[in-house]
Structure formats: C-alpha cells, structure tokens
Amino acid sequence: MSDLSTGLAFLNSILWHEYVLYAIVGTGVLFTVWSGFSQYWALRHGPAVVRGKYDDPNDPGAINHFQALATALSATVGLGNIGGVALAIALGGPGAVFWMWVVGLLGMAIKLTEVTLTMLYRNTEDPDNPHGGPMWVAARALQHKGWPRLGRTIGIVFCVSLLASTATGGNMFQAWNVGEITQTYYGVPTWVSGIVLALIVGAVIIGGIRRIGRFAATVVPLMVAAYLVAGIWVLAANITEVPAMFALIVKSAFAPSEAAGAFIGGSAASAFLFGMKRAIFSNEAGQGSSPMVHAAAKTDEPVREGIVAGLEPFIDTIVVCTFTALIILSTGIWSRAPDMPFAAEPAFAETAQGWALTDTELAGDDWYAGDSVSVVVRAGENETTANSLHRISGNVVAVADGFVAQWNVFLGAEKPELVSDGFYRDYVGATLTAKAFDSVTPGLGKWVITIAVWLFALSTMISWSYYGEQAIVFLGGEKPVLVYKIAYCGLIIVATLGFVKTNADLDNVIGTGTGIIMFANIPILWMFGYQAMRAYKNYIARLKAGQVGPDHPAPSIDDLLSGRDVMR
Description:
The protein has about 575 residues and is α+β, with helices and mostly antiparallel strands. It folds into two domains: about 1-335 and about 435-560, Amino acid/polyamine transporter I (Up-down Bundle); about 340-420, no CATH class. Helices cover about 65% and strands about 10% of the residues. The chain has 20 helices and nine strands. The strands form two sheets. Strands 1, 4, 5, 6, 7, 8 and 9 form a seven-stranded antiparallel beta sheet that branches. Strands 2-3 form a two-stranded antiparallel sheet. A hairpin with a 4-residue loop joins strand 2 and strand 3. Helix 3 (about 40-50) packs across helix 14 (about 300-310), helix 4 packs across helix 10 and helix 15 packs across helix 16 (about 430-440). The longest helix is centred in the last third of the chain and has 42 residues, at about 505-545. The radius of gyration is 24 Å and the shape is globular.
C-alpha cells in the first residue's frame, strides 16, 4: 500500500492544491452573490416543496421531491459525517470544522445551480425514467451551440471521473469503515462484512431508482434521528464544554492548533485544507453527483428541484457534521493520552532508509494482525503541523507468545525523539467517533455507531451505485448496467481486504476520487451557470407574485414516504 499511497498523495497534492480550493470557494461565492443569497429561499421555500405541496403526478419523473432529497441525502449523510469529520479533526485540528461550515453555506448555492442546470437539460424521452447530470448538461448545451462533439467529449470526461469517485468515496470508503469498526468491536473479519454489504446493496440496486427512492425515504430519516438522539446524550454529559469548543473551532481556523496528546498539532493552512476536503466530500457540492438523482424527481419547474437540493449541504454539513464534531471535541478523544504505556521504551536505530524503531511487545489479547498503532516523535520541521512533531505508524503482527508492533521507518534526517510515553491505537475514521461515544457511556459507541455506520454506509453505497449507473448509461446505454452493478458489489468486498491502514492512506484514496470529479464538473458550472441563474430569478419572481402554487394541501406522511402522492 505504501507505493500506492505515495502515488495517491502526489496526485492529491495536485488535485487539492490551495488554488483549486480557492476556485471552489470562489464558485460558491459567485453563485451566492449572483443569486442574491439563494440560501434564504432554500431554507424558506424548500421545506414546503419537500413536504409535497407542489407534487404533481402528471409531471415527468419517477419519484417525488421528498424521495429525491432523501436519496441524495443518503449519499451525503453517510460516513463522511461520522468518519470524515473525525478525519478532518485528526489531520487538521478543530479549525477544520469552521471551514466545513463555510463550504456548507457556499455549497447550498452551488448545489442549487448544478441541480437547476441538470433539470433544464435532463433527458425525459422516457418520462417515467429520466436521466440527467452534468454530462447531459455539457452534451445538450454545447449541441445547441453547434459543438456536439465537444459536448459529448466533456460528458465522457465527467462520466469517467464520476466512476472513479463512485468506486472510491461512494463505495470503498464506506465499506472499509464498516469492516474496520465491525472487526474492532465484534471481532468479525473485515471481508465477512464486505460480503454481507455486497449482498444487501445488490438486492436493492437491482430494483432501480424507485426501489432506491423507497429505501432512502424510509431509512434516511430514521437513521439521522437515531444518530442525533444518541449524540444528544453524549453532548448532555459534556454540555459545559460545548461553548469552549465553538470558540476553539473559530480560533483554530485562523491560527495554528497546539499539539495535545494524540493530536500532534495543525497549521491554519492544514485546517483549511482538510476542512474543505472533508466538507466537499461529505456534502458533494461541486461534484455534480446528486443532480443525477434529482433529475428523477417529478416536476415541470427546474428551479424548484434546485431549491430542494440547496437544503442538502445545510442538513449534511451545518447540522450533522457539526453535531459529530462537537461530540469528538467535547469528549477529548481527539487529544487523548496514550492508549497504552510502553512496557519497555523502544529505541531508534539508523538504517539506510532512515530511522527504525525496535519492535514493541503489546500487552493484552484484544489485538488483530494488521491493526494500526502509532507513536509521537519530535524531529525537524513538520509543515502540516506548524511544529516539529511527527507521527510514526506501525502494524500489529501476531507472534508465538502474543503481538508486537512493527514500525515504519522514519525518513527524516534528524534522529527522532520519542514524545509520547506510550503508543496510540489508530482509531481511523468512524472508529474515532465511536470511541467518543464510549468515553461517556462504555459500550454506547459499540452499538450506536456500529449500527449507524452500517446504515449510513448502505444508504450511501446504494445511492452512489445509481450515480455510477447514470454514467454507464451515458457512455454505453442500458446494456452494460448489469455488469456494472456486479462489479460495483465486487468492489465492496475488495475494500474490506485490508489495503488501507491509516488516516493518511484513507484521505489519499477518497481525496483522489473527489478531486477528479470536481475538475470535470466545476468548468461545466462556469460555462452554463448563467442559465441556471436566469431561470432561478424568473422562478423567484413568479413565486413572490403567487404564480407557482401550491395547488393542493400536503399529502399524508405515508403517501409522501411511499411516493403514492405522485403515482398515476
């Protein structure tokens, strides 16, 4: 994995260069100002649309507004909210949360724009099974301008990028987290979880968008509510810490975060970088993914679905991600003391590659071969942490009389000096959040987070399978879809075979997929965003004048969840 991770790290340095982040922020600022702060209308008008007051069974589409939002949220409100937030804090410090908020607010305008564009150009040749997304926007918009080949080429580039993101962030990241947390708490081999996940996902996605919509409309509200209720219990136990955590988040966004325990520190730049990356991964603003499921919504008003989509980053990032961040920060699990003291302090020896730690004997029998551990050392400047602290990772290996940690070689020229008086278990991604729950009520994380991780991962993988399917349809029609679905389920199993070990490895994998897809989608927004803004302003003017309904009372909750309110 080391060579692959090194290669992905280099690619990430290009895809996530600071100028790329500035471009994304600039895109959000542009459409926020251009739309006259569309976030206001998303929060004011969006809930009424989602409630079904504007649903019409005679409009083209396959699912209602609520099912479209629930399906899109099932892709965004997932392990990015549990594991992604933990990654952001572990690598960038508390300040990363502030930049997640910024992306969440700006992302509302980006989502509205990209979904409105998709609705303007969606393919409704089969009104009960429409197709849409940035690839259709590029292909159809440029065809109208007399450049069909260029439009098709841009659409193909986007679809290839989408498939890369589908395979990594939408699929393998989810499955990996499920395998890790299930093994940590229950001793179930990760590959077993992978097989179970693949079978469940396969059973749902075979039924198409209507089955996916019904699944999401039922599962998403329940899983979010259950997670929030359990989280309130944790926050209540640390309620006095919450105001200080908000202050820490804001302060750390603009100044280096000091090292503390397991956290080795972070610069303001690293907080910005990791907060932006994880928020974009979590709410998918600018990726062009969720427009594909919104394209299936029954409506004859393109902007109306765009306004519904504007709610996604608010729910995902401002509400759920903040909730997770406060849990992690207020419990102190992110900056905890070493999990286990050294029985005998390991020593460094200089080798041809760098500095090597002697193998370390591990006490206890609650280890698994392949578990990851780490120590904190001081050795030369670390640009990411804005100090001289570094983390050396190691892997747990089974030996005749127990377990030992075998450490990776430290590549710095200066001999490292141990800072921690023990070593840390590497609680990667969602496992760190689970440990935060456990710190308040032992065993709570074992049940709540494990169940949440399974549900969040399933819902995300099911929704992202549909996104990838739309790319396949654009590239080759309906015939290859079944082969794609089989391959998609196979990747779930591959992800649980132990190739990813650390937070840095995980960040490199999902960062690559997310970065590639944005490079394909953002230029499409720049080229055709003016059309979405023109349609948006026209719709808002008609809404203010009372010309766009609603035409009937809201349907019953049962009809809304099942989609019967739009059945013909």
